[in-house]
Design goal:
- By secondary structure, this protein is α/β, with parallel strands linked by helices.
- It is built from 14 helices and 13 strands.
- The strands form 2 sheets. The chain has a 9-stranded mixed sheet with strand order 9-8-7-6-5-4-10-11-12. Strands 3-2-1-13 form a 4-stranded antiparallel sheet.
- Helix 2 crosses helix 3, helix 4 crosses helix 14 and helix 5 packs parallel to helix 6.
- The two termini are 29 Å apart.
Length: 413
């Protein structure tokens, strides 16, 4: 590392924000954006570097901490990031593709980001704009050719697609991992064998183990069907996760819900608590949203006397340390129902659209010079909204976004 690069890194250290909670630290660089877990000792080293303006950088421990941040994209200048990505295409060679087969759904969850009206019929979206079976087969071939390793079928409710198992069979024949995100209502004895044959992982959305709570957000009388679907998947040896959207309706019983699903066979690391996104239908129900900080504080006061659950706070921060930076374009991509390609699930907005799979090959969309510029613009746009994004993404991965934050203060003395 050259002396110039070292001093640039020290200068850029001023923009880094440190999130602290219960002696756990996360360094976040809003210019990139990127984040990584730190120890208290590493934070003190960074404080001393700021105080001395880098004069102690010759110390081996200081060099190690700076190198750690730089290797995880913190402290870099934006041109350096763009240059690095141009040299190393693996950085924009995603391995996980979220494939939205349909926007249609058999439920009308009150917080759904995917549906903005409350019409009283079953399917509130037309299937006219959905890609046909042969088009999805071609897209899957291109995903395979471009190094994709896993496909996640999502929606809407993907099980509404009559051709879903034909598509799933093609994915598995190519040797790719295949997952599905479903509300679980349509899982039945008629299709469970197909699900078991083609899918490696099933994620089912459910907000409570109690009918009176689950019905408030997801609809009345569907909980028994969801629970039956979960149990069928477990009995067939499938790896099952559940997504629980945390609201004021289920907040007080959230630990009972976690314990219930652990007791029926869901692995505790597969129970995902999700913050309610303020988009779509949720905009009309913001009064039931729960700040992440409130949930974290609740977990810190909760005593798991009989539960085998670990301290949830620590589990969350362990995941943060593993999730070192934004995965947009680098590890994941979303392909919408009509073939539009987006950097990730959280950025399905017109300004982030990269192209359409029916008009260009996936390879051209991902690797053209235009997309390198798009990626740079993406980083710049994220800078202005990053706190909002970090605050509302999956709670089990990015909990730091709404806890106490501080810029690095000077070291005492």
């Amino acid at each position: 590392m050259t002396k110039t690069k070292i001093h640039e890194a020290i200068e850029n250290l001023k923009r880094v924000v440190i999130f602290e909670y219960d002696n756990k630290f996360v360094a976040f660089d809003p210019e990139v954006p990127s984040w990584i877990g730190l120890t208290r000792k590493e934070v003190k080293i960074l404080q001393e570097l700021l105080r001395s303006r880098g004069n102690t950088i010759s110390d081996s421990e200081s060099l190690k901490v700076i190198s750690k941040l730089i290797s995880n994209y913190l402290l870099l200048n934006i041109p350096d990031i763009s240059e690095h990505n141009n040299r190393n295409k693996m950085e924009i060679r995603p391995s996980i593709y979220y494939v939205k087969l349909t926007n249609r759904c058999n439920l009308r969850c009150i917080y759904c980001y995917n549906n903005k009206d409350h019409k009283n019929h079953t399917y509130t979206f037309s299937k006219n704009n959905e890609l046909k079976t042969n088009e999805w087969i071609r897209v899957i071939d291109e995903i395979h050719e471009n190094g994709g390793r896993e496909i996640v079928l999502t929606g809407g409710e993907p099980l509404l697609r009559e051709d879903i198992f034909r598509i799933a069979k093609h994915v598995t024949n190519l040797g790719l991992e295949l997952s599905i995100i479903t509300n679980g209502v349509l899982i039945s004895r008629r299709i469970i064998n197909n699900i078991s044959n083609y899918f490696n992982h099933v994620t089912i959305s459910v907000d409570s183990h109690l009918e009176e709570i689950n019905s408030k957000t997801r609809g009345k009388y569907i909980l028994p069907k969801i629970l039956e679907g979960i149990k069928m998947c477990l009995s067939h040896g499938l790896d099952v996760s559940i997504n629980v959207v945390v609201t004021k309706y289920n907040m007080e019983n959230i630990f009972d819900t976690i314990q219930f699903f652990e007791d029926i066979g869901i692995q505790r690391h597969n129970i995902n608590l999700i913050a309610m996104l303020p988009v779509g239908r949720a905009k009309s129900h913001l009064e039931i949203s729960v700040p992440i900080k409130e949930l974290i504080e609740k977990t810190s006061r909760y005593s798991f006397k009989k539960s085998t659950l670990p301290n949830m706070r620590n589990a969350y921060f362990e995941r943060i340390q593993r999730k070192i930076s934004c995965g947009a374009l680098r590890t994941e991509v979303l392909i919408d129902v009509n073939g539009d390609v987006y950097p990730c699930r959280m950025l399905e907005y017109p300004e982030f659209k990269l192209g359409n799979i029916t008009q260009k090959k996936l390879h051209h969309i991902l690797y053209s010079y235009y997309i390198h510029i798009k990626q740079l613009n993406l980083l710049i746009r994220l800078k202005s909204n990053i706190y909002h994004i970090v605050r509302h993404v999956y709670l089990d991965t990015y909990v730091a976004g709404d806890v106490e934050q501080m810029h690095l203060p000077p070291a005492e003395g």
